[in-house]
Design goal:
27% helix; single chain; 4 helices; globular; 3-stranded antiparallel beta sheet; alpha+beta; 4-stranded antiparallel beta sheet; Aminopeptidase; 145 residues
């Protein structure tokens, strides 16, 4: 069973360990994102959540209101395709839509992550200097009754 809960400072080492061992969008230089970056991120107007399965940290998501950015959704390889990424995304966006109308992220093209985000409704709006896709999602509108 998947459990989504707020990320605690004590979760950062396990989250970072997941970040450096994912199969896609790996950090070529693990020093580019450090554990201190997670703590700095969590101190701002952000929402950070973790997903657990069978008592183990299986993934995490971090969304930034000020920068209108989904900074991270990463799932440990052994927990892929078990609904954790989708649940993390839902939790992050459900909170975020009360704060802002547009959410952006970047990811490598032709990856499962890019397909995941496109299926979630993101649209490609460009490419970064490094060639990553820049994706954007707009807050859903409530149907008029």
């Amino acid at each position: 069973m998947n459990v989504i809960r707020p990320m605690l400072a004590s979760d950062v080492p396990a989250a970072h360990a997941i970040r450096v061992r994912v199969r896609e969008n790996q950090l070529s230089d693990p020093s580019v994102v450090t554990e201190a970056d997670y703590h700095d991120f969590m101190a701002r107007d952000t929402k950070s959540s973790v997903g657990e399965r069978d008592g183990q940290l299986a993934g995490f998501a971090m969304v930034d209101v000020e920068k209108q950015n989904l900074w991270a959704i990463f799932v440990a390889p052994e927990y892929e395709r078990k609904g954790i990424g989708k649940a993390l995304h839902h939790t992050a966006t459900a909170w975020y839509w009360h704060r802002s109308d547009v959410l952006r992220l970047s990811t490598a093209p032709r990856t499962r992550a890019a397909a995941f985000y496109h299926m979630a409704g993101y649209r490609t709006i460009g490419r970064s200097e490094s060639g990553e896709l820049i994706l954007e999602l707009h807050r859903p509108t409530d149907p008029i009754h």
